[in-house]
Amino acid sequence: MFFMAGVVCVKQIYFKGFLLPHLISRRLIMKISCKQFELELKHPFSISKFTRTSTPLMLLKIQHDDVIGYGEASMVPYMGESYESANAFLQLVDWDKIQSPFNFQEIIAYLDGLAPGQPAIKAAIDIALNDINGKILNKPCFEIYGAEPSKMPVTSYTIGIDTPEVIREKLKDAEAFKVIKVKLGRDNDKEIIETIRSMTNVPLYVDANQGWADKIKAIDLIYWLHNQGVVLIEQPMDKNNLDGNAWLTERSPIPLLADEAVQRLADMDKLKGAYHGINVKLMKSCGMYEGHQMILKARSFGMKVLIGCMSETSCATLAAAALAPLCNWADLDGPWLTKNNPFANPQFENGKYILKDLPGLGLEGVTEGLFPYTIS
Ligand code: MG
Fold first, then answer.
1. Which of 89, 132, 206, 330 is surrounded by the fewest CB atoms within 10 Å?
2. Ligand 1 centroid to residue 39 C-alpha, Å
3. Second-level CATH architecture of 143-353
4. Distance from the CA of 212 to the center of ligand 1, in angstroms?
5. Residue 259 alpha carbon to ligand 1 centre in Å
């Protein structure tokens, strides 16, 4: 119990649709629970530099007075976060400093002040607080961010680098999707595309994951991919090779997007003109607030936006889906690539997420036993 005299918090409470503003002269009770969760992939997943079969998650439950919010950190190994770093970060947070889950700019600045980096666990906190914010306001997160469900883009289904036999298997899992995203960047790029084209004519997104080193070969391949029905390409060359990527952008007939080259809002200024667009991921942007800021900034630069994901459950996927109608494209296939999503799958029809009119994230299927211990 954390009561402190003299602290005044403004809390808006809705009752049957009517706003009841309250001044509450006590500290709100914050309870934090987390759960280490190994999210298992349906198929071993390879991109140009790594292969893995599962992804460590830190699932987070924050109780803010009588309102509960859920968050998630997906800590893909090459990004440098782990159960240990996430636990250590959560211990650093003085939750009494996050009494008001409305001022996200201040909250992210506070979290950044505790430790540099660690965007995934910061995202988990931001997502849980956005869930709480929506529940207190009795509004869905998508409505708070001004996203219209009718503008939801189709979501792509990602196929990692693999043998033609395995790719054929994976394509059978992708029948509900209207777009396939293909990981390229090794020496069999054309073989992979030809295998997919022998089975389906759906539009393709390509992610080279920095795998192309020679810009002349890369532009030839980009034209070939364009003729194969590829509509966008993520991170063609090394993230630090700004000139090489900009050279390709000048010449490419299809949009080239920065992914590894852009993590957060502060990275964006240097990318203007070097890419046609960016890939926003909540696990890079420290969650929904800064992800939304990045979408707005990209628009102000005349850049396009793909909203993507890591290996994620329904929790982080719903957070990204709430922003997806503000983006040009979506790649939010996390729950469909995994075997043990602990929550109900989001509603999905005709290749798109259906945003439900539920307060906060709209996360469903939470079992109480999932969050067995309390940090504070
Ligand atoms: Mg990518």
1. 89
2. 19
3. Alpha-Beta Barrel (3.20)
4. 13
5. 5
Query: Is residue 376 very low, low, confident or very high in pLDDT (cuts 50, 70, 90)?
Result: low
Domain residue extents for the chain: 31-139, 143-353
Q: Which CATH architecture has domain 31-139?
A: 2-Layer Sandwich (3.30)
Judge whether residue 47 has pLDDT over 70: no
Say yes or no to pLDDT of 177 above 90: yes
Q: How far is Cα 337 from Cα 170, in angstroms, rounded to an integer? A: 10
CB atoms within 10 A of CB 163: 12
Q: Ligand 1 centroid vs 158 CA: distance in angstroms?
A: 10
CA of 302 to the centre of ligand 1 (A): 20
Separation in Å, CA 166 to CA 170, 172, 195, 207: 6, 10, 10, 18
DSSP 248-317: HHHH-SS-EEESTT--SGGGSGGGBTTBSEEEEEHHHHTSHHHHHHHHHHHHHTT-EEEEE-SS--HHHH
Instruction: Write down the pTM of the prediction.
Output: 0.90
List beta partners, residue 251.
none
* Residues near 143 by beta carbon (within 8 Å), at least 6 away in sequence: none
- For residue 19, name the pLDDT band (cuts at 50, 70, 90): very low
- In this prediction, residue 48 carries a pLDDT of 59
Task: Record the tokens describing residue 194, joined without a space.
Answer: 């030809």
pLDDT band at residue 300, thresholds of 50, 70 and 90? Answer: very high
